[in-house]
Specification:
The protein is α/β, with parallel strands linked by helices. It contains eleven helices and ten strands. The chain has helices at residues 23-35, 38-45, 49-63, 79-107, 119-124, 126-136, 149-157, 204-209, 220-228, 245-253, 263-271; strands at residues 68-70, 75-77, 112-117, 141-146, 163-165, 185-189, 213-215, 240-242, 259-262, 276-278. The strands form four sheets. Strands 4-3-5 form a three-stranded parallel sheet. Strands 9-6-10 form a three-stranded antiparallel sheet. Strands 1-2 form a two-stranded antiparallel ribbon. Strand 1 and strand 2 form a beta hairpin. The longest helix is centred in the N-terminal third of the chain and has 29 residues, at 79-107. The protein is globular, with a radius of gyration of 21 Å.
Length: 283
């Protein structure tokens, strides 16, 4: 007698061989993308460099995709590696939400605050705010979801979030909003890019006509840039479009193209000269 199929499970196509990646390997891949080297990623997790290298090779073998170009000086993500890293961040964020959610179920606390935040704000501003909130109201449980600005606003509109933090030059008229911080966008390129040695400012028309590495549509960073360059027509088709800032920083540093990103997000890269910034004459 044939066993009934379990509800909620789908059978894989015949011949499909899927090996799920190890979460530790995904964390290490993100660390390599952020630090630019296997040794620094190993130091972040206090493990040996050979262990990191072995995990990366195992990950490449499981996925069947070349992720890294290794050299004696640094490890550089391939174009496919940039995309996989972006997906890895989404997976890890979902895992973090899962862990946080199960912790909330265990705690059974009645006081809950559902927060949505865009990526740059979540990475650079929200942690300090949540620390202050915990010191003031330790009984309040916070659920944080990190997504782009458009989805945060939609979450507020449809009661998915109690509070939202987004980037952008303005707030929607149908949602109550207030300014809680300020940032600016900067043009960044790799140290070997022609613009890194350029002394004259970049014109707004030139920037609009240049293929860039960009955030996805719906992000506050993308919408702010497009609004600033509206005078010069539509922005050129991007070289690369990703849903997170860190892989775009890596892409710009590796020479794939200029990026326009949050000054807060690139300050460490500029300080350590992994990126160079240029000024825009009219934007």
């Amino acid at each position: 007698m044939r066993k009934p199929e379990r509800s909620g499970f789908r059978s894989r196509p015949a011949g499909a061989q899927v090996q799920l990646p190890d979460l530790n390997a995904l964390e290490l891949l993100v660390a390599v993308a952020e630090t630019g080297s296997l040794s620094q990623a190993a130091a972040r997790f206090d493990i040996s460099q050979p262990s990191v290298s072995a995990l990366m090779m195992t990950l490449e073998r499981r996925l069947g995709v070349k992720l890294l170009v290794r050299s004696t000086r640094r490890s550089r993500l391939t174009p496919a590696g940039l995309v996989v890293t972006d997906w890895a961040r989404c997976v890890l964020e979902s895992v973090a939400v899962f862990v946080e959610g199960t912790a909330a179920l265990r705690s059974r606390q009645e006081d809950r605050l559902r927060i949505g935040a865009s990526l740059t704000v979540a990475e650079h501003m929200v942690p300090g705010w949540l620390l202050s909130l915990r010191e003031t109201l330790p009984q309040v449980h916070v659920g944080l979801e990190v997504t782009n600005s458009h989805k945060v606003i939609e979450g507020i509109r449809h009661n998915g979030f109690d509070l939202g933090f987004v980037e952008g030059p303005w707030g929607p008229r149908d949602v109550q909003s207030t300014v809680v911080g300020r940032d600016r966008l900067v043009v960044v390129v790799g140290p070997d890019h022609l613009w890194a040695r350029r002394r004259s400012p970049i014109g707004g028309a030139e920037l609009a006509a240049t293929p860039l590495v960009l955030r996805e549509r719906g992000s506050g960073t993308r919408e702010t840039l497009e609004a600033a360059l509206k005078t010069y027509g539509s922005v050129a088709n991007p070289v690369l479009e990703l849903g997170a800032t860190a892989p775009l920083r890596t892409a710009a540093a590796s020479g794939l193209g200029p990026a326009v990103l949050s000054a807060m997000a690139v300050q460490e890269d500029l300080r350590e000269e992994r990126l160079a910034s240029g000024s825009v004459r009219t934007c």
